[in-house]
Amino acid sequence: MREEDLSEVRNLPLFRNMRAANFQTLMQGAYSQRFPGRLELIQQGQRADFLHVVVEGSVELYADWQGASTTMAVVRPVGTFILAACIRDLPYLMSARTLEPARVLLVPASDLRATFREDPEFAVSIVGELAGAFRSMARHAKNLKLRNSRERIIGYLLEQSEMSGGADQFVLQVEKRLVASYLGMTAENFSRALRTLEGEGIHMKGQTVTIIDRAALMRACPPDILIDGPDPEPMSGGVSLPGPELPGSRQERRSAAGQGGVGQQFRDPNETRPGRT
Amino acid sequence: MREEDLSEVRNLPLFRNMRAANFQTLMQGAYSQRFPGRLELIQQGQRADFLHVVVEGSVELYADWQGASTTMAVVRPVGTFILAACIRDLPYLMSARTLEPARVLLVPASDLRATFREDPEFAVSIVGELAGAFRSMARHAKNLKLRNSRERIIGYLLEQSEMSGGADQFVLQVEKRLVASYLGMTAENFSRALRTLEGEGIHMKGQTVTIIDRAALMRACPPDILIDGPDPEPMSGGVSLPGPELPGSRQERRSAAGQGGVGQQFRDPNETRPGRT
DNA sequence: CGCATTCCTTGACAAAGATCAAACTGAATG
DNA sequence: CATTCAGTTTGATCTTTGTCAAGGAATGCG
User: Fold this and answer.
1) SS3 track for A204-223
2) Residues of A in contact with B45 (CB under 8 A)
3) Residues B17, B23, B24, B27, CA torsion sign
4) Residue B243: what are its φ and ψ, rounded to 5°?
5) Inter-chain contact B145–A147, Cβ cutoff 8 Å?
6) B107 has which bridge partners?
7) A64 by DSSP, 3-state: which?
8) CA B28, CA B49: separation in Å to the nearest integer?
9) B143: Cβ under 7 Å from strand D?
10) Closest chain B C-alpha to A63 CA, distance in angstroms
């Protein structure tokens, strides 16, 4: 594995604080591998033998049942996935495929578990990572259950804007169909909903989103750090879509777990009207 | 705290394997508290100061946004909740309220984190618990995204049957409205859907469910261990509804964590019983 | 016991979302 | 530069699900 990649991995929240010797041991058992685009890396139901770390490219996590399929997350450098399955030594609940050519670091799950007992700092990192992944998934479920499709779209776009440092214009990082699937709707519905958002605060041209009337959008879907936020200390773990890039910076890539959201406020927890569900 | 309760707690997957001395220390900082029914224990957005262990009664985890509200889980003895928030020292993503009078053990999050570094076995338990909670939440999201309401209901009932040891008749453990909310639909829709399932494999009388035609149900919603199953080694963490009881055993209560279906027994005779409160 | 809640059910209706088919777009390719 | 192909958009239509309103059943309490 290349030095540079090693140091990137070493800087992951997951590996950052462990003892150098243990990191070295872990990495000796690991290996880095290149994959072409659109290749299935793992299938749901398989056993978890390796923790996966995306070093380059991007990987989609998805799930299917009875012919239906849904995107659960996209992981970009440097993010990890299927940590939970490795820890528990159980079958994956999701499948993974590359969206584009990618390089992935594979860390044997057995080494992972062994090192966990050896190195308290590593254990702390692992548990923090997992807790973050849990919270991300909880947010995902809340989003699906508490908002309708229109609101989820607005929430997503505002979140993307937030991740672009609050910019009013940014570029979607993934295909719309994939965003639609992630947000739990059909591509057609997503398209139509975007259409109706034109003139209500959003302008779209290709993959470029422009926020015209932020206030109106926030009225239509008040952001909530208990749904939209990333947690303050970003975790990888691949439970969200990647952040956007600003228009005209095509090759600049950040971690999907990346930037923390600012400027979002709590809602008053006391106002509870009859629920939607 | 009562001896008996302590030993129950000691037998939780989370505390079972830790060193006796550490368990004792943890429990010394902890305290047990009684709450009346329908009382809000924690509100989403609050800071996580204590890990909660339900010793008696039952607790609902729910979330709301803009007046809408949805049930995320119900925790019964002996199950834990909000572990992830404690680990990360971040605000809860969910609120919790008692459904009935309950007794809850409160373990200071700081003690939890300290003990984590001290005791590798405890660390292993924590991470296992969290990994399980993550997977449960992932299942929940998959269920919502890949199945329609009718299928989710069938899946739920088949799962409940499974938890009753495959019995064809069992009693719902929680109000239907709550099940409906958990499954991501309105109570009205739930009621109607159940109605149409009469004569298609299900018979309902009050809270008692009878499975008439299991094969038909499994055709309508093929069970999938990557959605419905509990993981082999059951975790608590409160990310599912509790298991049913067989008709005519009203007072027999099992752990919500015991989603793992059958045969989870407590009572491990080699026991330490730490002190006070 | 009867009243008051709370939960559950039902009906009529409206809205949201899915499906199917077809056309359009834009980038990659020969 | 035409072709191709995946992705996107659009329209028409249908299904699913939510909403509102009201009645019924069960339960707890005075």
Assistant:
1) EECCEEEECCHHHHHHHCCC
2) 226, 266, 269
3) negative
4) -75, 160
5) no
6) B51
7) strand
8) 16
9) no
10) 7
In the CATH hierarchy, which top-level class contains the domain B148-230+242-247?
A: mainly alpha
Three-state DSSP class for A136?
A: helix
Query: Domain A3-140+250-259 adopts which CATH fold?
Result: Jelly Rolls (2.60.120)
Angle at A44 between CA A43 and CA A47, to 5 degrees: 85
- pLDDT tens-digit profile, chain B (277 residues): 678 878 888 998 899 999 999 999 999 999 999 999 899 999 999 998 999 999 889 999 999 999 999 999 998 888 889 999 999 999 999 999 999 999 999 999 999 999 999 999 999 999 998 998 999 999 999 999 999 999 999 999 999 999 999 999 999 999 999 999 999 999 999 999 999 999 899 999 999 999 999 999 999 999 999 999 788 764 444 456 776 766 644 433 333 333 322 222 222 323 333 333 3
**Full DSSP string of A95-133:** EEEESSSEEEEEEEHHHHHHHHHH-HHHHHHHHHHHHHH
Side by side, the strands of the sheet bearing B95-98 are: B40-42, B95-98, B59-65, B68-75
Q: Which nucleotides of D are covered by protein (CB under 7 A)?
A: 7-12, 16-21, 26-27
Distance A101 CA to C29 C1' (A): 19
Domain boundaries, chain A: 3-140+250-259, 148-230+242-247
Measured between CB atoms, does A175 come within 8 Å of chain B? no
* Full-model pTM: 0.86
B19: left (phi over 0), alpha (psi -120 to 50) or beta: beta
CA of A269 to C1' of C26 (A): 47
User: Nearest-CA neighbor of B135 among A111, A109, A82, A117?
Assistant: A82
> Does A171 reach chain B within 8 Å, measured CB to CB?
no
Q: For the purposes of burial, counting CB atoms within 10 Å of the CB of A54, is it exposed (0-12), middle (13-18) or buried (19 or more)?
A: buried
